[in-house]
Write a structure and sequence with these properties.
Layout (H helix, E strand, L loop, with lengths): L2 H12 L5 H10 L6 E4 L3 E5 L5 E5 L11 H13 L6 E2 L1 H11 L12 H12 L4 E6 L5 H5 L10 E6 L7 H5 L6 E6 L8 H9 L7 E8 L3 H8 L7 E6 L4 H9 L8 H11 L3 H6 L1
Helix pairs in contact: 10-11
């Protein structure tokens, strides 16, 4: 793209006349050189390599001259964010990911967890800042997470943070301080950006607007909390996910997708499972 084409393109952005072809052009152009993006209070600068430097401002006249730097900021954010995997997942996206990676699937009904869900629902509603949900492997902690959309308060935004995200700094910086959020991190012991999460808990604008739900195995619980190092004045709650009773495991086995009719077979599985739904499903 030459300077004249760039100027016309960003004029269309400022005039809110951006076309699909313009977006395609940006997607093709931005990755061609190392791109650095710098924001000022009223300006956006995009730099390529030493021979191809482009600066767009809201109130100067280098390449783009116009009043609407925010329009350019928004489109650059939108374009560049598409170049890496999303860090915040909806309930639908999270469900698709965990279903794909699960050994036995999550088609079985949720059994024996109504009291836990009620406790979590109460914590969501009473201003708790940090919830640590923990249990042994296979007790279906992730299955509980799929039910959260049914218990978050009205007007609260629920997001699942991708555990292997390269960074969540952009997403955190762009959370709306006027909106309440529940942010869920499954397998929190594998999450590498606790310092970025901590920023929400020390930010006076956000701490009362966010609930962080960390999910991990009990053996990792203390190390996960220590890694986050939450401020001492926040509201923190512990939720322990215990194994199910034999009656509850039996109920799972009698219903879909297992539909085991034989009581002898079910009793043999109960001995193997020891209250662990994953072990029961595998057996």
């Amino acid at each position: 793209m030459n300077s004249d084409q760039i100027t016309k393109l960003f004029n269309r952005i400022a005039g809110k006349q951006l076309t699909e072809q313009d977006k395609t052009t940006l997607l093709e152009w931005l990755p061609k050189a190392p791109i650095g993006i710098v924001y000022g209070e009223r300006a956006v600068a995009i730099t390529g390599d030493i021979n191809d430097v482009i600066i767009i401002t809201g109130d100067n006249n280098i390449v783009y001259k116009g009043p609407d730097a925010e329009a350019i900021r928004a489109i650059v954010d939108e374009i560049t964010i598409t170049r890496r995997p999303r860090s915040l997942l909806s309930r639908t996206d999270f469900g698709a990911r965990v279903e794909h990676n699960c050994l036995t699937g999550f088609q079985a009904p949720l059994v024996g967890r109504q009291t836990l869900l009620l406790k979590i629902e109460t914590l969501f509603s009473n201003g708790t800042n940090l919830i640590v949900l923990h249990g042994s492997g296979g007790v279906r902690k992730t299955r509980l997470l799929l039910e959260l959309a049914n218990i978050v308060p009205e007007n609260v935004h629920l997001w699942y943070i991708r555990t292997e995200a390269e960074s969540i700094e952009w997403e955190i910086n762009n959370l709306d301080p006027n909106v309440h959020y529940v942010l869920v991190i499954d397998d929190a012991h594998r999450f590498s950006h606790m310092s970025q999460i901590r920023e929400l808990l020390v930010n006076p604008q956000m701490v009362e607007r966010v609930t962080i739900l960390l999910v991990t195995r009990t053996v990792f619980k203390d190390s996960v909390v220590n890694k986050l190092s939450p401020p001492i004045n926040i509201k923190l709650a512990d939720v322990d996910v215990q194994p199910l009773s034999n009656a509850e495991i039996d109920e799972i086995l009698r219903n879909g997708p297992f539909l085991l009719v034989s009581e002898d077979v079910r009793n043999a599985i109960l001995i193997i499972a020891e209250g662990n739904p994953l072990f029961a499903g595998i057996a």
